[in-house]
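Chapter review: from sequence to fold.
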Amino acid sequence: MVLAVTYDNGEIGQHFGHSEYFKFYDIDGGKILDSEVVSTEGQGHCALAQFLYDNGTDALICGGIGPGAQMALGEAGIVVFAGVMGNADQVVDDFIKGELQYQSGATCDHHSHGDGGCGHNCGDHECHH
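The C-alpha cell string follows.
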C-alpha cells in the first residue's frame, strides 16, 4: 500500500490545501519498505488530489482538510485520516500498529464559512482524475 502524509519539516502538515510536500511510504506486511519526500511544486487543493492519485496513493494522513478536498480524494479512492498531529514517521508507525489517533470530521476552519477570505469555496471545485 502507498500511504501519503502531509509533510512539514518532519511533522504532519496541518493544512492539506497548502501542502508543499508529501512523504510517501510504501508499506507491505506491516513494514515500511521505502519512503520519499516529494514536492507538490506549488499545486493546491483539488490538484493535490490528482497529485496523490497519480502517485498511487491508497490512504492519506493529514491535519485539517476541507470538504471539497475530502470529496475529491474519496472519488479518487483515497482513504483520508484527518486531524492528525505529530512526527510523520511516528504517526505512520502508529498507523501500521493500528494505533493511529485521528478525527474523521477534521476540516479546515475557513471552509465552513464560504471562502473565508481565501478566494474560493472548495465545494465548488471540479476535480478530475
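Two observations follow directly from the output. Residues 63 and 83 are 4 Å apart (CA to CA). The longest helix spans residues 88-97.
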